[in-house]
Amino acid sequence: MRQRPKRKNKISAGYVRNVVCAINIRQRRHGHLSRRARARA
């Protein structure tokens, strides 16, 4: 699994969140959500 960086900066946090949201939206549009994405959403 991906390790969480020790130093939290808002830019990377927002970037990761945007990427996750984009992945969730893309998968939802296709109608199949992975287990991780469903847990995230």
UniProtKB/TrEMBL annotation:
This is Uncharacterized protein.
